[in-house]
Task: inverse folding
């Protein structure tokens, strides 16, 4: 299956103009050597590449041509020995040292010039914060929207401010010819100015562990800001809880956990709800709200059998401080949904916005049976989130958390 | 004039030789004879090559489909790590210096042995110990999944056998240092009287330049790996940002060794090729002094370019520019070496024997490997190509197309000297053809993939690259068959091949003035020094079907029959 299919479908971004259909994007788009050119410096880089390629080809053909000619011309024959010839010729040796040197100086110059363009910031660039971790991408926009794919606007320069939560990663967009490592403990930057509307591959290029090859996403170039905003903005109030959970899962968890039963770095989560999970210390635990909450906030406390011995550190980072209580509630909803979707409302069911009369969460959901959009509404979840539904609503206003993220990064 | 019987004794096929002068397992494991140590090394590095080659084939099979159906992601990561680590540390670095160099270097100097025979044996046992630690990472079930570069902080985070493997690489480093030190002292002090620096075969210049790097650069790797072990075990806070360290510092330390190590891998190969081209063209090497000095120049410049592995790591722009500029300076001596080899073939008498076929395919493959280095040395193109399959293809063209081809060429060249028996030349050429075709089929598609944006070290990948990976996998199978055939021909020859006398190829360097296989003392007589590329100095002796020094074919010249008086 094509990488782009689920990712584009996920955020309903098929509607964006110019995005290749999943079928066409399986085909290589671009020239023989390159993916299509979609940034300002792609053209220069391709030119230099082709220039070096033709220079190299010329040298190579001459070298191999001479070699093959000598192989036949001077092949050993009965009764014919080698003829003496000079074993030293200053003029010739200077000639074949100096000519390549001059060419190399030009290549160096052209490469350095292009490099400066790639590493010097554009004026008025939009700053997008990138957090890479094993094995997820998270992009935070100036207005606080968050996405798993990079969404940018055509012809608007971008500055990516990148940080890693764990190990080395590298941000690589082949269509832009841009790449930079993401180093834990410091910020690195990548600049680009997209020139073409479309969807392009974005990959992790620096080996980062087990799921390295799964750390692929897309960069979508939108035709204008409104189009971008339309895709990236997300208001939790407008969706059933499990759909919010699905989105959070895609952004934070999908690098290591699958929803189709395949085992990635962590266990699959589609059928775990309500089952008895065997732990590495031999005991079992029932997968309920408390267990999931603990697994998210303190992943090393207990480990599922087969994912490390008790007492060792989990491969999963703690999400303490990164996910709010409400968001954990949405994730729990999503895990429950995966186990038994029949109890949940459809994806497109619009939840009514919170009533303006200030009565809180209870008033948002009428008493009809399937509408449990908040974990607080269902019986087992009560001990987890009961007592602070008003906070839930604040936290899920959509912009609070990402803003906090931004401030952290700027410090 | 020396009698035919005397010539037979000195230059013929020797039934009593270094292989059978003493018997029993103890006579091998405690031997101080550089020839036996060289043979043991050759067996060892060949096994390492075959093991790492099997890993490579498993990798390639897994990449047949884009969804990684054969291996799990974790297994794939372990497989490419072990492929790289075993190939680099246990095969390529010791292959030519420790195996071929050990056998040939003292004989090319007309010496009886290396300067420190015990250190030489010690170096071999350190190789076994170090390789053992590397393999222990596999056998213990922990595996190793950091990539051969052990980049922090992942190598600190992972719970695989990083400590075993780095300790193994640390020990292998000492093995390499001991070999290098031994060669430096041997070349400096044990040349036969009259053999000035410029009367040495170019292979020795290559080994000498390599030895300089081994002695100067390898300690840095040792310290780096110890620091990594300390960081992993005790969290001393040097490489892991979690404890206040800097992961990029590790990359600087690592490449400060590992870039020069690239030249440890290729310089001896270039030395071998210089010998093969001259001998099989029967021509004096063109531009001898340039080739000799370029080896040393490459070795020294090689210390100044490590940062070109880190153009995207976030190092400063100025530093990046400087590293790029110096990188291009290394290109010149490498290119001119190739021109010199071609000029050597001019008006030669070129015999397309198996070693020469390997030498010519070296020029072809190393040419591509070197020229594609230009794309990576130029900054803007490197940003796009860094950490893609383009890089993978580039360094395989240099390491496999260059070094492995040179290893084969060299082993085929000196095999009759080592075992006194000749291989089947047609089958040898067939192996060369398979290696050449398989290699190109494997790695050429990877240039295209890389330029199109396929990142390296991916277990599963985007479907548009599938066809390139399938070509590559098919090529790897052909390459594997070629390599196995190449060794098979040699092993068969060592036991069943027709016997040959001392100098079947008419080479003029000193190691050929001995019986085949050589005597335990290398030379029964005092070898007669000529220019190593003066092929007129060797005359064909029909009775022996081999070449002997002209002095032994002329009247009124009695050779000294006492052994060379150097003792240890």
Result:
């Amino acid at each position: 299956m094509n990488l782009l299919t689920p990712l584009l479908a996920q955020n309903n971004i098929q509607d964006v103009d110019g995005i290749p259909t999943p079928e066409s994007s399986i085909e290589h788009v671009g020239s023989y050597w390159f993916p299509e050119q979609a940034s300002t410096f792609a053209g220069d880089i391709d030119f230099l590449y082709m220039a070096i390629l033709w220079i190299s080809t010329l040298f190579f053909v001459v070298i191999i041509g001479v070699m093959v000619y000598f192989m036949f011309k001077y092949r050993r024959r009965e009764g014919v020995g080698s003829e003496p010839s000079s074993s030293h010729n200053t003029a010739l040796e200077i000639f074949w040292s100096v000519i390549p040197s001059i060419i190399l100086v030009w290549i160096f110059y052209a490469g350095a010039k292009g490099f400066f363009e790639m590493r010097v910031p554009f004026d008025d660039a939009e700053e997008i914060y990138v957090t890479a971790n094993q094995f997820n991408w998270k992009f935070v926009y100036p207005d606080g929207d968050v996405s798993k794919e990079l969404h940018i606007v055509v012809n608007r320069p971008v500055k990516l401010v990148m940080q890693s939560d764990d190990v080395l990663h590298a941000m690589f967009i082949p269509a832009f010819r841009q790449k930079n490592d993401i180093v834990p403990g410091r910020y690195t930057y990548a600049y680009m100015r997209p020139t073409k509307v479309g969807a392009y591959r974005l990959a992790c290029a620096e080996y980062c562990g087990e799921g390295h090859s799964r750390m692929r996403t897309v960069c979508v170039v939108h035709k204008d800001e409104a189009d971008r905003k339309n895709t990236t903005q997300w208001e939790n109030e407008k969706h059933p809880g499990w759909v919010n959970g699905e989105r959070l899962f895609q952004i934070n968890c999908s690098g290591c956990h699958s929803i189709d039963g395949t085992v990635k770095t962590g266990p699959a989560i589609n059928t775990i709800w309500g089952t008895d999970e065997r732990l590495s210390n031999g005991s079992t635990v029932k997968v309920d709200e408390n267990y999931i909450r603990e697994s998210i906030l303190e992943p090393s406390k207990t480990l599922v059998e087969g994912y490390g011995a008790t007492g060792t550190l989990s491969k999963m980072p703690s999400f303490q401080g990164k996910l709010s209580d409400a968001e954990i509630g949405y994730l729990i909803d999503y895990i429950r949904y995966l186990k038994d979707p029949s109890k949940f409302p459809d994806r497109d069911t619009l939840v009514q916005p919170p009533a303006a009369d200030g009565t809180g969460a209870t008033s948002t959901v009428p008493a009809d049976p399937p509408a449990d959009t908040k974990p607080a509404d269902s019986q087992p979840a009560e001990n987890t989130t009961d007592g602070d539904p008003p906070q839930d609503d604040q936290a899920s206003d959509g912009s609070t958390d990402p803003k906090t993220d931004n401030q952290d990064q700027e410090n | 004039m020396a009698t035919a019987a005397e010539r037979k004794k000195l230059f013929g096929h020797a039934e009593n030789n270094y292989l059978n002068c003493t018997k029993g397992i103890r006579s091998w494991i405690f031997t101080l004879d550089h020839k036996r140590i060289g043979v043991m090394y050759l067996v060892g590095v060949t096994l390492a090559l075959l093991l790492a080659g099997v890993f490579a084939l498993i990798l390639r099979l897994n990449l047949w489909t884009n969804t990684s159906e054969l291996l799990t992601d974790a297994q794939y990561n372990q497989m490419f790590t072990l492929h790289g680590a075993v190939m680099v540390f246990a095969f390529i670095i010791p292959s030519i210096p420790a195996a071929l160099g050990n056998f040939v270097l003292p004989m090319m100097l007309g010496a009886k042995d290396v300067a420190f025979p015990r250190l030489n044996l010690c170096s071999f046992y350190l190789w076994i110990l170090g390789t053992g630690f590397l393999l222990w990472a596999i056998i213990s079930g922990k595996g190793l999944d950091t990539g051969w570069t052990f980049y922090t902080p992942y190598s600190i985070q992972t719970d695989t056998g990083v400590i075993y493997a780095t300790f193994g690489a640390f020990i292998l480093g000492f093995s390499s240092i001991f070999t290098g030190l031994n060669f430096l002292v041997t070349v400096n002090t044990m040349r036969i009287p009259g053999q000035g620096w410029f009367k040495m075969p170019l292979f020795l210049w290559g080994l000498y330049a390599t030895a300089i790097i081994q002695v100067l650069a390898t300690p840095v790797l040792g310290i780096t790996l110890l620091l990594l072990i300390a960081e992993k075990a005790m969290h001393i806070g040097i490489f892991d940002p979690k404890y206040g360290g800097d992961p990029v510092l590790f990359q600087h330390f690592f490449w400060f060794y590992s870039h020069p190590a690239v030249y440890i891998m290729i310089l001896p190969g270039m030395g071998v090729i210089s010998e093969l081209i001259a001998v099989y063209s029967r021509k004096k090497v063109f531009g001898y002094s340039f080739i000799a000095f370029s080896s040393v120049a490459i070795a020294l410049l090689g210390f100044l370019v490590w940062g070109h592995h880190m153009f995207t790591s976030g190092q400063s722009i100025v530093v990046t520019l400087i590293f790029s500029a110096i990188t291009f300076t290394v290109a010149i001596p490498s290119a001119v070496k190739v021109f010199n080899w071609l000029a050597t073939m001019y008006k030669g008498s070129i015999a397309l024997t198996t070693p020469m076929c390997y030498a010519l395919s070296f020029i072809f493959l190393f040419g591509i490997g070197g020229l594609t280095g230009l794309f990576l040395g130029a900054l803007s193109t490197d940003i796009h190509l860094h950490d893609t399959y383009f890089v993978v293809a580039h360094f395989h063209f240099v390491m496999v197309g260059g070094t492995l081809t040179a290893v084969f060429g060299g082993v085929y060249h000196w095999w009759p000297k080592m075992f006194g028996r000749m291989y089947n030349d047609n089958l040898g050429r067939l192996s060369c053809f398979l290696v050449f075709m398989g290699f190109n089929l494997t790695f050429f598609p990877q240039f295209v993939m890389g330029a199109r944006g396929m990142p390296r070290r991916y277990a599963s990948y985007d479907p548009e690259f599938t066809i390139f990976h399938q070509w590559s996998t098919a090529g790897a199978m052909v390459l594997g068959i070629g390599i196995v055939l190449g060794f098979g021909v040699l092993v068969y020859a060592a036991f069943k091949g027709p016997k040959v006398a001392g100098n079947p190829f008419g080479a003029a360097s000193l190691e050929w003035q001995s019986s085949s296989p050589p005597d335990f003392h290398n030379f029964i007589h005092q070898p007669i020094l000529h220019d190593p590329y003066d092929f007129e100095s060797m005359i064909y002796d029909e009775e022996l079907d081999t070449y002997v020094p002209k002095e032994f074919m002329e009247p009124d010249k009695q050779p000294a029959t006492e052994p060379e008086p150097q003792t240890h």
About this structure: Residues 164 and 185 of chain A are 7 Å apart (CA to CA). Chain A touches chain B through 97 residues (CB under 8 Å). The longest helix of chain A spans residues 42-73.
